User: Fold this.
Amino acid sequence: MGHTCPVPAGRLTGARLLWARGALAALALGEGLPGAWALGRPRGFYDAFPLPGHSWVALFPPYNEHLVRDFGAAVLAMAAVIGWAAWSALPGPVRAAATALLVFSVPHLAFHLAHLGRADGVEAVAQLLSLVLPVVLAVTALAATAGAAGRDGAARTGPPGTTGSGTPETAGAAAPGTTRAAAHTTDPTDPHTTTRSNTPTETPRERGTQMTTSVQAQRLDRRFELWDSNGDGRIDRGDWEAEAHRILKSFQETPASPKGQALLEAYLGMWSYLAEHAQLGPNGSLDRAQFHALVSEHILDRGKEGFDEVLRPTVTAILGLADTDGDGHVDPKEFRAWIKAIGAEESTADEAFRAIDANDDGRLSVDELVESVHRYHAGELDVALL
Assistant:
């Protein structure tokens, strides 16, 4: 399907990957070298760490070979875990490794702050910097995972290689922007008609109790078929990546540009979120039934929270492409470009715009656009934006 080499499901990408991997690699090196030294040559470590003539460990006598070797082994083990987390670039291992490092480094820093008087001048400053740096790097790695799509360690009841319900590894992913349904008088299978629902205004959670299963299924089917570009009955990471590239091409934006990177990261973030909950391998894929199952469990059943976590980054990224005047909103002309980019009929754009523009201010915000996708999958609005 014309996609690049697969990336393990759930892995950090783009700038997140660079920051997390860089911080963790520095930590693995900074902890691993002293750890190996202390384990292999404990007396030399005690007498000469970090440099001959500048022994920081010897400031706290007496020497104890057992303790120094144990310290070295523990720090070396931590460096190995940090290195593995850097290699995997999965949010869960990155967070675990960075948190473990903080559990070690913060008390270590606090102890030395209380005993800086044992070192003089430059030595004290150097000690302080060497102890603060690991904390900064660990926080940087944690920050790189903030908001990353997907939540590692989410509840799963099935065995490895299954979804929470125990279906096989190629378990269902979720479509971007899927939610509860309410009654609607228009044809639910046509995503390009644009009629406002007569359903009274309700919160997303209230709509959740009124989901029309048939409408939800039909619209998820429509979304699945759009992604399944080769018609093989399965979707995978490459299908999501291909759609992102198609949208970028429509906006004449390159993947390497900041806006291009934002869209790719958002699209692949959606896939990573779903693939992670499905426990897919790097080359995993989803069939139609599995797709439906994950959508319902991990987006629809979470209501507004699910849409905001999984879908909002993509809506924001597409808005950034369409927003040519940089005001943070989409006007009717910009919205027509959006409709064209997603492959819908441009003739429906003006009516769709009016249907989405809840406050009738003549422009669309991210909130209105996310809510419109929510309402589409609830059967309340017939405008398919993604």
Observations:
- The radius of gyration is 26 Å.
- The chain has two domains: 14-145, 204-377.
- The mean pLDDT is 80.
- The beta strands are 50-51, 54-55, 234-236, 285-287.
